Amino acid sequence: MSQASPQVRSDEERPLGSGPVLSTFAVLVGLMFVAAAYMVFFHAPTEKVMGFVQKIFYFHVPSAWNMFLGVGVAAVGSVMYLVKRTDKWDRIGDAGVELAVLFGAMVLISGPLWGRKAWGAFWVWDVRLTSSLVLVLTLVACKMVRGYAGAEAKKIAAGLAVFAVINSAFVYYSVDIWRGTHPPKLVATLAPAMKQTFWFSTLTFLIAFFVLLTLRLRTGRLQSALDRLHLRLTESGLDD
Question: Residue 84 domain-assigned?
Answer without folding.
Answer: yes
